[in-house]
C-alpha cells in the first residue's frame, strides 16, 4: 500500500505554514500498517500565543465583514470540499484507519456543517418589537464572540473540527484549532482549502500539539470561548478550567450507548443496524453501540444472528475494497481493549466471539476483530467503561421497563436506540430514557448539522451543544437595544 511520504507538520498561523517553536515531535502512524505518515509538533504556549495573536488581529476586520460576504466564502468552501471529496476521505482512512466508505460518509457530515454555516445571514438575524411601550422599540442584535479555541479528538478528523470552525467563522469569529495529535493531517488540508475559498489570513489558525496547547488556550485571556470534543475525563477538566477562567465552554464527552431490542423487533433490521453501529469505525464513535439490551426471548436468535454477521465482516486496511472493520487507532489502544476483554472474562461474562481469533489481530497494524460478550451485568467494567473499540456487550432483561432502568444507570447519556414495531414502546422509551440522542430502528442516531448534538449526563459539560441553534447561540453574543425616538 503506497502512502504519502513522511512530512514534518507545521502550524498554520496568519495564513502561513510555520515551524513550531519546539524540538518535541510525535510520530503519526497509519494504524492499518504501523508505518510512519508524518511527524506532528508538540507545540508550546509560545506557539499558542502567536496563533491567538493572529486570530485577534484578524477578528477586527472579519467581525465587520458583511455576513453575506462571509457566507459566500463558505459556499465556495463547500464546493471545494465536494471537489476534493475522495482525497479527503482517503486521508481520513490513512490517518484514522476507518474504511474508505465510512470516511466518505464522514466527509459528507463535514460538508453538511459548512452548508449549515453558509446560512449565516438567516442564522444571525436578530428580533425586534416595534412598540414595547408608546414610542419605544426594542431589538436584539447578534454579534460574534471573538477568538474561539477548538480542541478535537482523533476519531472524526474532519467531521468534529467541522462542527466548530465553519459555524464559528461564519458567525464572524476567528478560530484557533488544536486537532488531535493522533490524526492531524486532515486539519491541514481543511485549512488549505478554506484559504483557497478566499478566507482571509488569520481567521483560521491551527496549532498542533497536546496538553500544553490545550492549557495555553484554556488560560489565554484573549480566548473567550472553548469548544471541546473528546473523552469524559478531559471534557470535565476542560469544562472546569475554562469556566473557572470565565470562558463560555461546550465540552462533548464520552459515551456508553445502549440498544434495546424488543421481542417484536424486525430482527434483520436490528442486527444490521447493531453490527454497523458496534463495529463501524472499529467502535471508535461516540455514538457507537456498545451494549445491547435483549428483552426476554429475543436474546437467543439475536445472539445467533449477531455472531453470524460478525463472522462475515471483512477486516483489514480501510483502503481495500469491501473492508468494513479497520484497525483501532494505536497499539496502546489495542492493548487496552485486550485488557477489557480479559476483565470481561474474569468478571464472569460469556465470551461469545473473541476478536483475538481473527487473522488480522496477529498481523501488522492495530487490528482487533469483532468481539461479543453475553451475560454482562452493570457491576462489570465492560458495562461501565467506554471501551471505544469493537467490543459489544449483551445484557439480558425481562421487560422494556427493566431495559430502560438499566440504561439509565449508566453515567453517560449520549445515545440510545430502541428496536420495536410498537408505537407505545417508542413513547415509553422516549419519555423515560435519560439520554439526549435517540434512535428508533436506527443504530447510529447522530443528529445532522442543523440540529444540536445533544448528549446528556457525563457525555456533555456545558449549556449549549455543538451544531444547530445551540451552535449559533454558542458562537454569538447579543446586544439588546431599547430606543425612544
Ligand atoms: P481525548 O480526550 O484523548 O483527546 C481529545 C483532545 O484532548 C485531543 O486534542 C487531545 O490532544 C486533548 N487532550 C487529551 N488529554 C488531554 C489532557 N490531559 N489535557 C489536555 N488536553 C488533552 O479523546 P480521543 O481519544 O482523541 O477521542 C475519543 C473520545 O472522544 C471518546 O471518548 C469519544 O466518545 C469522544 N467523542 C465524543 C463525541 C461527542 O460528540 N460526545 C464525539 C467524538 C468523540
From TrEMBL:
Pathway: Polyol metabolism; myo-inositol degradation into acetyl-CoA; acetyl-CoA from myo-inositol: step 7/7. Keywords: NAD, Oxidoreductase. This is Malonate-semialdehyde dehydrogenase. GO terms for biological process: inositol catabolic process; L-valine catabolic process; thymine catabolic process. The keyword Phosphoprotein does not apply. GO terms for molecular function: malonate-semialdehyde dehydrogenase (acetylating) activity; methylmalonate-semialdehyde dehydrogenase (acylating, NAD) activity. NAD(+) binds at residues 154, 178, 181-182, 386. InterPro entries: Ald_DH/histidinol_DH, Ald_DH_C, Ald_DH_CS_CYS, Ald_DH_N, Aldehyde_DH_dom, MeMal-semiAld_DH, MSDH_GmP_bac. Homotetramer. Catalyzes the oxidation of malonate semialdehyde (MSA) and methylmalonate semialdehyde (MMSA) into acetyl-CoA and propanoyl-CoA, respectively. Is involved in a myo-inositol catabolic pathway. Bicarbonate, and not CO2, is the end-product of the enzymatic reaction.
Amino acid at each position: 500500500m503506497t502512502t504519502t511520504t513522511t512530512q514534518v507538520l507545521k502550524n498554520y498561523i496568519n495564513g502561513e505554514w510555520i515551524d513550531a517553536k519546539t524540538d518535541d515531535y510525535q510520530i503519526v502512524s497509519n494504524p492499518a500498517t504501523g508505518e510512519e505518515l508524518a511527524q506532528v509538533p508538540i507545540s508550546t504556549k509560545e506557539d499558542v500565543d502567536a496563533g491567538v495573536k493572529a486570530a485577534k488581529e484578524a477578528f477586527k476586520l472579519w467581525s465587520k465583514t458583511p455576513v453575506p460576504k462571509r457566507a459566500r466564502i463558505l459556499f465556495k468552501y463547500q464546493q471545494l470540499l465536494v471537489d476534493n471529496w475522495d482525497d479527503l476521505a482517503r486521508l481520513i482512512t490513512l490517518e484514522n484507519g476507518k474504511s474508505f466508505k465510512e470516511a466518505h460518509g464522514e466527509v459528507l457530515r463535514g460538508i453538511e456543517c459548512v452548508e449549515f454555516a453558509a446560512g449565516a445571514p438567516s442564522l444571525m438575524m436578530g428580533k425586534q418589537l416595534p412598540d414595547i411601550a408608546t414610542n419605544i422599540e426594542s431589538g436584539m442584535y447578534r454579534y460574534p464572540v471573538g477568538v474561539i479555541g477548538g480542541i478535537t479528538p482523533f476519531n472524526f478528523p474532519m467531521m468534529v473540527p467541522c462542527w466548530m470552525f465553519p459555524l464559528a467563522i461564519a458567525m464572524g469569529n476567528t478560530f484557533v484549532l488544536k486537532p488531535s495529535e493522533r490524526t492531524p493531517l486532515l486539519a491541514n488540508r481543511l485549512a488549505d482549502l478554506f484559504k483557497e475559498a478566499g478566507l482571509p489570513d488569520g481567521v483560521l489558525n491551527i496549532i498542533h500539539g497536546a496538553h500544553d496547547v490545550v492549557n495555553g488556550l484554556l488560560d489565554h485571556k484573549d480566548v473567550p470561548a472553548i469548544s471541546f470534543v473528546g473523552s469524559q475525563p478531559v471534557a470535565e477538566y476542560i469544562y472546569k478550567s475554562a469556566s473557572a477562567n470565565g470562558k463560555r465552554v461546550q465540552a462533548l464527552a464520552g459515551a456508553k450507548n445502549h440498544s434495546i431490542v424488543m421481542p417484536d423487533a424486525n430482527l434483520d433490521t436490528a442486527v444490521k443496524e447493531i453490527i454497523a453501529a458496534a463495529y463501524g469505525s472499529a467502535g471508535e464513535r461516540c455514538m457507537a453501540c456498545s451494549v445491547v439490551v435483549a428483552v426476554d426471548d429475543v436474546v437467543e436468535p439475536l445472539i445467533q444472528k449477531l455472531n453470524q454477521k460478525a463472522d462475515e465482516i471483512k477486516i483489514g486496511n480501510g483502503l481495500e475494497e469491501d473492508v468494513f472493520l479497520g484497525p483501532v487507532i494505536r497499539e496502546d489502544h489495542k492493548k487496552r481493549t485486550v485488557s477489557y476483554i480479559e476483565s470481561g472474562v474474569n468478571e464472569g461474562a460469556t465470551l461469545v466471539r473473541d476478536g483475538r481469533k481473527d487473522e488480522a489481530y496477529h498481523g501488522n497494524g492495530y487490528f482487533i476483530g469483532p468481539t461479543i460478550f453475553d451475560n454482562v451485568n452493570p457491576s462489570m467494567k465492560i458495562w461501565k467503561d467506554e471501551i471505544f473499540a469493537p467490543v459489544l456487550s449483551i445484557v439480558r432483561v425481562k421487560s422494556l421497563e427493566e431495559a430502560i432502568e438499566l440504561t439509565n444507570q449508566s453515567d453517560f447519556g449520549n445515545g440510545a436506540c430502541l428496536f420495536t414495531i410498537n408505537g407505545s414502546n417508542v413513547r415509553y422509551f422516549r419519555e423515560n430514557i435519560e439520554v439526549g440522542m435517540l434512535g428508533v430502528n436506527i443504530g447510529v442516531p447522530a443528529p445532522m448539522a442543523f440540529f444540536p448534538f445533544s448528549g446528556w449526563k457525563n457525555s456533555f459539560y456545558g449549556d449549549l451543544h455543538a451544531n444547530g441553534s445551540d451552535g449559533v447561540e454558542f458562537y454569538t453574543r447579543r446586544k439588546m437595544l431599547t430606543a425612544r425616538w
